[in-house]
Amino acid sequence: xxxxxxxxxxxxxxxxxxxxxxxxxxxxxxxxxxxxxxxxxxxxxxxxxxxxxxxxxxxxxxxxxxxxxxxxxxxxxxxxxxxxxxxxxxxxxxxxxxxxxxxxxxxxxxxxxxxxxxxxxxxxxxxxxxxxxxxxxxxxxxxxxxxxxxxxxxxxxxxxxxxxxxxxxxxxxxxxxxxxxxxxxxxxxxxxxxxxxxxxxxxxxxxxxxxxxxxxxxxxxxxxxxxxxxxxxxxxxxxxxxxxxxxxxxxxxxxxxxxxxxxxxxxxxxxxxxxx
Length: 276
Ligand code: GLU
Prior knowledge:
This protein is of the alpha/beta class. It has a domain of 115 residues: Rossmann fold, CATH 3.40.50.620. The protein contains ten helices and twelve strands. The strands form five sheets. A three-stranded parallel β-sheet has the order 1-2-3. The mean pLDDT is 94. The structure holds glutamic acid (GLU). Glutamic acid binds next to loops.
C-alpha cells in the first residue's frame, strides 16, 4: 500500500533545520513510494500562533522544494470535528473537568513524574458531577482531562507498529490524565492530531522521537473513537554541534535566516541529511 504521510507544524515560530528534516522525511517517504504527502497546520492555540508564521511555513517548504497533495488542513477551521470527538468520549464516561491550576499540580505532594513533567495527580477525577457543573457555570477556568485509567480499562490491551521498535504495547498511563480540551482552547494537541490523522487518511505518521510517549495516548484515543491506527516512524532529534536539541525557543537558525544569509535549498537539504 502506498503510504500517506504528513508534516504537521505549529505556526508558533519560523521553521528551523529540525523541521526541515521532519518535513523531508515525511515527503521523501511518500514520494519515493508513489504515496501522498499532506501538510497540516496545527494552529489551535490562538494565543501562540501567528499568521506570519503560517505564511512562513508555506514559503519555507516551497523554497526547500517540497510539494504537498490537496489543500492544506488548518486545524482552526475544524473545531466541529474535535467537538464531535469530545462528545463521543464524554458519552463513554472517560472525560472529566479539572479546575486545578498549574501551581496546584506542581505543588501536589503525590504528583509522580512522567516523560513530559509531573503527571496530573487526579485531584478532580472524583469531583461530584453537580459540583463540577456548578463550577463550570460560574465561569471558572477548567480543562477536560482523559481518565486514562478508566479509558485503558475500557479499551483493553492495545499496540501499534513502530518502524524501529516493532510492535509496541501501548502504555498510555505513562502520560497520566492528559488534557483534551480547555475552556479557552476547545481541543488539545493529542485530540486534534488523532482525529486529523484519521480524517486525512494518514497511514504512516513520521515525527520526532520526543513525541513517542504521545503516540501511546493517541493509540488509546483511536481505540475509544473507533479510528484506524496508522504505522509510526519516530526519527531522532537534530542537535547542534554542542549536542543540544534544535528548538525554536533555543534560537536554532531558521530556514529563513539561512536563506537570507545566502544559503541554498540544496545545501539546506544536505545539512538536514537529504537525499539520504
Ligand atoms: N504540531 C506538532 C509540533 O509542531 C507536531 C505534531 C505531530 O507531528 O504529531 O510539534
